[in-house]
Design brief:
- By secondary structure, the chain is mainly alpha-helical.
- The chain contains 14 helices and no strands.
- The chain has a single domain, classed as Up-down Bundle (Growth Hormone, Chain: A).
- It is globular.
- The two termini are 27 Å apart.
Length: 419
């Protein structure tokens, strides 16, 4: 089979474009933070202020909560219904929720539109797309996941910067409406290119060969129950909790932190774009590294870089040096998202890949939900981000220690009968 005829490359392209739009929308929420404060007079200078940072961060935490709690369900549905159906429904939910942000007039609407609808939409974005790519590629599995997640990095660069420009040109509501409509149409249309399993189209995953004239071999791998019986599964879950806490906290708070440290709103918005830009390097680099080093060493390197970056953040005293932080942080930020899916394939095969990956993300949701809102709450109480940065340092160290104990699984999943 020539590579030009292999449909898996279309899967990678479509998944990368969808990731671009998803993560572009999520990172734009950080750009909107101060505009939401001003719109509803949630600023600390009011006579009876609401807890400003925790209130707005709470909508972000709610979005991450639904993203994570639904990820196992989305993985299960993708395993059985296929990615096209699941992604069509979830991208529509995300696009509608985002564009409805342009109409909000009360805090509960922020939680309904961004927290619930966008959260439902985000539930499928990684588990379905990365699981689908893992099924189409055995060879180059890491770098293909890296290319898909590089799309997310491009979105983190382009969409928030575009949103900041639209806000200066029009206002924040018009900017959100324009972006929301673009996301809705673009993601739903692109989802139509997705297909679950190459075997359904008389193809094999790239890197596998069928030397006989018999029917194509079935998928192999662990069932969900078998995966739950291995300590490696739980180490991956707890490591994901640690990295999700750090990633979502920085995603929601970095623009606001930059502004409080003295950067102008426009310059602070570039921080999140820089994270996205440097994460592209991380996504591609760790995709290549994974294909050569495997799960354990890739995660060791990722957590080491994360730990160094948040320790650096704790020492920074001049706001312009935050751009140095974005370099050292952006690389592992991208790496974590790339490693997740191929690590499940390495340890547990692809038979129930979506369901197992979804469960890992489900456990990680505890960190994804807790990070932004705990950080917002500690700021409201202390009027400082110092405690929150120390928590980031601690969790990065815990994640590194957990991944040092990963070892290969000796089970031969090829003996597992196909469902």
């Amino acid at each position: 089979m020539s590579h030009k005829q292999f449909y898996g490359y279309h899967i990678v392209t479509a998944s990368s474009v969808i990731q671009l739009m998803y993560l572009g929308g999520v990172f734009t929420y950080g750009v909107l933070f101060r505009h939401l404060e001003a719109e509803f007079a949630w600023l600390p200078g009011n006579p009876h202020p609401l807890p400003v940072a925790a209130l707005i961060s709470g909508a972000g935490s709610m979005m991450f909560f639904f993203m994570g709690t639904l990820s196992a369900v989305m993985g299960f549905l993708s395993d059985r219904l296929g990615p096209r159906i699941v992604m069509t429904a979830t991208t529509a939910s995300f696009g509608i929720g985002f564009l409805l942000l342009s109409t909000i007039s009360a805090p509960w609407q922020l939680y309904l539109y961004y927290g619930l609808l966008c959260g439902i939409g985000m539930g499928a974005h990684d588990v379905v797309l990365l699981s689908t790519v893992a099924r189409w590629f055995t060879k180059y599995r890491g770098i293909m996941a890296g290319i898909v997640k590089a799309g997310a990095g491009v979105g983190q660069v382009l969409v928030p910067v575009g949103a900041a420009y639209l806000i200066t040109r029009y206002d924040w509501r018009d900017a959100v409406l324009i972006i929301g409509i673009t996301l809705l149409i673009g993601m739903v249309l692109t989802s139509q290119f997705l297909r679950r399993d190459p075997r359904m189209y008389s193809q094999l995953p790239l890197g596998e060969e069928n030397d006989s004239d018999t029917a194509l071999p079935s998928e192999t791998g662990a069932t969900v129950r078998q995966a739950l019986g291995h300590y490696q599964f739980w180490l991956l879950c707890l490591a994901k909790l640690a990295d999700f806490y750090c990633v979502t906290t920085i995603m929601v708070h970095i623009v606001r932190y930059g502004q409080l440290e003295g950067l102008s709103p426009g310059v602070a918005a570039i921080l999140i774009a820089c994270v996205g830009g440097f994460s592209i390097i991380g996504r591609l680099a760790f995709g290549l590294l994974f294909d050569r080093l495997g799960t354990r060493l890739s995660l060791n390197i990722c957590f080491s870089l994360l730990l160094f970056s948040v320790m650096l953040l704790h020492q920074i005293e001049r706001p312009e040096l935050l751009f140095v932080f974005t370099f050292f942080y952006g690389i592992p930020h991208g790496g974590f998202f790339v490693i997740a899916s191929p690590s499940i394939a390495e340890y547990f095969g692809t038979r129930s890949h979506g369901s197992i990956l979804g469960l890992v993300f489900f456990v990680g949701t505890v960190g994804a939900v807790g990070g932004p809102i705990v950080t917002g709450w500690t700021y409201d109480v202390t009027q400082s981000y110092d405690v929150s940065i120390l928590l980031l340092i601690g969790l990065a160290a815990v994640g590194l220690l957990l991944t040092l104990f990963l070892r290969p699984i000796k089970s031969n999943w090829s003996t597992t009968a196909s469902p």
